[in-house]
C-alpha cells in the first residue's frame, strides 16, 4: 500500500494544516476522519527488529499514558512500522493515517524513526470523550533537507547530568535533529575522563563556586577550594552515545584547542608559554591578562593532545572530532621567544599562520585516529588545513569562504543560531548578551550564495552556550522554541510561501506537548518588543506574534485586561519612570507582567 501511494500520490504542500515541526514535505489531510488510538491498538512490524516498536510503545506510555502492546501479523486497526527496501519511495518515510490504522514506511530504520516522531506530534494531548485518542487521517511524505541537523551543548561552562542530556536528546529526536555537538572542554572546566591523563579531570574539572553575571564574577581567592564541576566517565559517555544512537543522533565531541584551554593549563601549567600557575576560571574576566592558550612550541602539547584524541576517538564512533580553534588569543605567543623561533624555523609570517600550523598538527593527530577534523571558522585564518570542515559562527562569512575553497561547511552563525542570546527585551529576560528573537531565528537564511557548490553545506546547527545557563530548566528555556525554527530550517525544504503565523501555530502545539511532558520552554513570543523613538518621547510596542492584545500602564501598577489596550505608538507621560505590559489572547493572559524602566527601553536596540 505504501509503495503504490508513494509512486502515485500527488499531495498538496499544506504544511501548516497539521501541528508538526519541522514541517513535512507533503501533507494531505482527509477531512473529518481519524484513527482511534486506544490501549488495545497493536503495534506491528515488518522488515525491522523489535527496537523501534518497543520505542514507540514506551513513548506512548510516557507521553500519553497509553499502554499499547506489540502485535503479530498485519491485522487492521493497528500501527504498522515497516522498512521496505524494495519500495524506492523517494522519501525518508511515508505516514498514512486512516480510520483503519496507521502505517509508517521508511526507506530504512531511521526513516521509520522519523515517521514515529511525526506520529507522536499528531496524537492529541488528551483522549476524546470516548476514551480514545483521535489521530487526524492524513498522508505525509517526508524527506530531510540537510544531513547535519545539529545542536551544540556546552557542558563546560555549566555541567549537565547524564539524565538531563538524555532528556535533551529525547527533545532533539522529536524534532528530527541528528547531531549533538558536545562541547566538552573550555576555560571553565574539562568534562571528559582521559584515563592516561587523570590530572585533566582531577584538577581541570573543578572551579571555585560562583553565582552572578558571567565575566563579572570574583576570581578564585588564594587557598579557595574548587568545588563546582564534574566530568563524564568513559562509561557515562558510552551510555550517552548509545542512547543517542538509538535515536539516530550522532555525537560529535569537541576538544577546544589551542585557545579556551585554561582548564588544561590548570592541570598542566608547563603547556603554557608563561608557566602559570593557573586555576580553572569561574566566569571572571581574564581575556588577554591570564593565558589560556596552549604553547605550540612545546612538543609535549602535542603528546598530550595525542593521548586525549586517542581516547576521544575510541569513545565516539562519529567520523568527526571537533577541535574548536576559536578565539585563540595570540598575545602570549607573540611575546614568547620559543614561539618566535618556531615561526622562524617553520617560515610562518605571523601568529595567524602559527595557529594554522597548530591546526595542521592536530589534523594529523585526528586523522591518525581514523577521524575527520571540524573546527570553528577561525581555522581559516593563516590557511585552512586540507581536510578540514568549517563550522561558521561569526556570521556566514567563514562558511562562505570555506565553501569557495571547496571545503564542507556547517552553518551555526551568531546571532540567529546562538541559543544563548536574549529572546525578548533584556529587562525582562535573564541576563545574557545579544539578541535573537524567535522570528530572527526563523527568518534566517543559512544557504550559501550563488557561485558556491550548495552540496558543500552539510547543514545547520544551533549552539547552546551555557555561560549564563546554570541549570537544565533554564537550558530548555533558552533552547525552545528557537530550536524549533532551527529544526525546521534543517529538515524542511525552503518554502518561498512559508508563513510565520502558521509556524507559530505549530510551535504553540509543541508548547502543549512540552507542558504535558513536564518540559520547559520560553514564552517570550507572548511579550512585545519595546522600542523608544530617538527623542525618547514615544514608545512602540511590537507583538512578535499575531492575535495578542497588549494592556499597558505607565502608573507603576500591574496591568490586567481592564487597563488601556495598545493601539499605536504611546507618548511617554511626563515623569513616567516605567512601562508595564501584559498580553492577553481571547481574554486570557498569555504574556508575563513586564516591567521596564523608561531609561532601559532603548537597550533592546531593535527597530520597531
Ligand atoms: C564561539 O562562539 N566562540 C564559537
What does this structure look like?
By secondary structure, the protein is an alpha/beta fold. The chain folds into 3 domains: 141 residues, Chitobiase/beta-hexosaminidase domain 2-like (Chitobiase, domain 2); 370 residues, Alpha-Beta Barrel (TIM Barrel), CATH 3.20.20.80; 74 residues, Sandwich (Immunoglobulin-like), CATH 2.60.40. The protein binds acetamide (ACM). Acetamide (ACM) binds next to loops.
**Range of strand content:** 15-25%
- Please, what is the CATH homologous superfamily of the largest domain? Glycosidases
The biggest sheet amounts to: 8 strands, parallel, barrel
What integer is the average pLDDT?
A: 94
Strand pairing plus helix content: what structural class?
alpha/beta
Number of helices: 16
Q: Alpha-carbon distance between the termini? A: 52 Å
Number of domains: 3
The CATH topology annotation of the largest domain reads as TIM Barrel
Secondary-structure arrangement, i.e. CATH architecture of the largest domain: Alpha-Beta Barrel
Measured as a percent range, the helix fraction is 25-40%
SSE inventory with pairings:
Blueprint: H1 2-8, E1 26-37, E2 42-46, H2 51-64, E3 69-70, E4 78-83, E5 93-98, E6 101-106, H3 109-122, E7 133-142, E8 148-154, H4 162-174, E9 179-183, E10 185-186, E11 189-190, H5 199-202, E12 206-207, E13 228-229, H6 234-245, E14 250-257, H7 262-267, H8 299-315, E15 320-324, H9 331-334, H10 337-345, H11 351-368, E16 372-376, E17 389-392, H12 397-404, E18 409-411, H13 438-443, E19 457-464, H14 472-479, H15 482-491, H16 500-517, E20 529-532, E21 538-542, E22 549-553, E23 570-571, E24 578-585, E25 588-589, E26 594-597
Parallel strand pairs: 2-3, 2-4, 4-6, 8-9, 8-19, 9-14, 14-15, 15-16, 16-17, 17-18, 18-19
Antiparallel strand pairs: 1-7, 5-6, 5-7, 10-11, 12-13, 20-21, 21-23, 22-24, 24-25, 24-26
Helix pairs in contact: 2-3, 4-6, 8-11
The structure holds acetamide.
Amino acid at each position: 500500500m505504501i509503495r503504490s501511494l508513494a509512486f502515485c500520490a500527488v499531495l498538496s504542500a499544506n504544511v501548516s494544516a497539521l501541528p508538526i515541526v519541522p514541517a513535512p514535505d507533503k501533507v494531505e489531510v482527509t477531512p473529518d476522519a481519524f484513527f482511534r488510538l486506544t490501549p488495545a491498538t497493536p503495534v506491528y512490524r515488518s522488515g525491522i527488529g523489535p527496537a523501534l516498536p518497543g520505542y514507540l510503545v514506551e513513548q506512548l506510555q510516557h507521553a500519553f499514558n497509553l499502554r499499547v502492546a506489540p502485535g503479530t501479523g498485519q491485522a487492521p486497526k493497528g500501527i504498522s512500522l515497516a522498512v521496505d527496501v524494495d519500495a524506492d519511495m523517494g522519501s525518508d518515510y511515508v505516514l498514512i493515517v486512516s480510520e483503519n490504522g496507521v502505517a509508517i514506511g521508511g526507506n530504512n530504520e531511521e526513516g521509520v524513526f522519523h515517521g514515529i516522531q511525526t506520529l507522536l506530534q499528531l496524537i492529541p494531548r488528551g483522549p476524546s470523550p470516548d476514551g480514545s485518542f483521535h489521530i487526524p487521517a492524513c498522508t505525509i511524505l517526508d524527506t530531510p533537507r540537510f544531513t547535519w541537523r545539529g545542536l551544540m551543548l556546552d557542558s563546560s561552562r555549566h555541567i549537565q547530568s547524564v539524565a538531563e542530556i538524555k532528556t535533551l536528546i529525547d527533545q532533539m529526536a522529536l524534532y528530527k535533529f541528528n547531531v549533538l555537538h558536545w562541547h566538552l572542554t573550555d576555560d571553565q572546566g574539562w568534562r571528559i575522563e582521559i584515563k592516561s591523563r587523570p590530572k585533566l579531570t582531577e584538577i581541570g574539572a573543578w572551579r571555585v563556586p560562583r553565582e552572578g553575571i558571567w565575566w563579572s564574577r570574583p576570581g578564585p581567592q588564594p587557598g579557595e577550594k574548587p568545588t563546582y564541576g564534574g566530568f563524564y566517565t568513559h562509561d557515562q559517555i558510552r551510555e550517552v552515545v548509545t542512547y543517542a544512537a538509538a535515536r539516530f543522533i550522532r555525537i560529535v565531541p569537541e576538544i577546544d584547542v589551542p585557545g579556551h584551554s585554561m582548564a588544561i593549563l590548570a592541570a598542566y601549567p608547563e603547556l603554557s608559554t608563561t608557566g602559570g600557575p593557573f586555576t580553572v576560571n569561574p566566569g571572571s574576566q581574564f581575556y588577554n591578562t591570564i593565558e589560556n592558550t596552549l604553547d605550540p612550541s612545546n612538543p609535549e602539547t602535542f603528546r598530550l593532545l595525542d593521548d586525549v584524541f586517542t581516547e576521544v576517538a575510541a569513545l565516539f564512533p562519529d567520523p568527526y572530532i571537533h577541535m574548536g580553534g576559536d578565539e585563540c588569543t595570540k598575545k602570549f605567543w607573540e611575546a614568547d621567544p620559543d614561539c618566535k623561533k618556531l615561526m622562524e624555523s617553520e617560515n610562518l609570517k605571523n601568529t595567524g599562520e602559527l595557529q594554522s600550523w597548530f591546526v595542521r598538527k592536530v589534523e594529523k593527530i585526528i586523522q591518525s585516529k581514523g577521524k575527520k577534523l571540524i573546527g570553528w571558522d577561525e581555522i581559516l585564518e593563516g590557511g585552512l588545513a586540507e581536510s578540514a570542515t568549517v563550522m561558521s559562527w561569526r556570521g556566514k562569512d567563514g562558511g562562505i569562504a570555506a565553501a569557495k575553497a571547496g571545503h564542507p561547511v556547517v552553518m551555526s552563525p551568531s546571532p540567529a543560531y546562538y541559543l544563548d542570546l536574549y529572546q525578548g527585551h533584556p529587562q525582562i529576560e535573564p541576563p545574557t548578551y545579544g539578541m535573537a528573537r524567535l522570528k530572527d531565528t526563523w527568518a534566517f537564511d543559512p544557504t550559501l550564495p550563488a557561485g558556491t557548490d550548495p552540496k558543500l553545506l552539510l547543514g545547520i546547527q544551533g549552539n547552546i552556550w551555557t555561560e549564563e545557563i546554570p541549570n537544565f530548566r533554564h537550558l530548555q528555556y533558552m533552547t525552545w522554541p528557537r530550536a524549533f525554527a532551527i529544526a525546521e530550517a534543517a529538515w524542511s525544504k525552503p518554502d518561498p510561501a512559508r508563513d510565520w503565523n502558521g509556524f507559530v501555530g505549530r510551535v504553540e502545539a509543541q508548547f502543549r506537548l512540552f507542558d504535558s511532558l513536564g518540559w520547559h520552554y520560553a514564552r517570550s513570543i507572548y511579550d512585545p518588543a519595546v522600542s523608544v523613538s530617538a527623542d525618547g518621547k514615544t514608545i512602540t510596542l511590537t507583538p512578535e506574534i499575531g492575535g495578542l492584545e497588549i494592556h499597558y500602564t505607565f502608573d507603576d501598577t500591574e496591568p490586567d485586561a481592564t487597563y488601556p489596550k495598545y493601539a499605536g505608538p504611546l507618548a511617554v507621560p511626563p515623569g513616567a519612570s516605567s512601562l508595564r505590559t501584559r498580553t492577553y489572547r481571547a481574554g486570557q493572559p498569555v504574556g508575563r507582567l513586564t516591567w521596564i524602566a523608561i531609561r532601559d527601553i532603548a537597550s533592546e536596540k531593535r527597530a520597531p
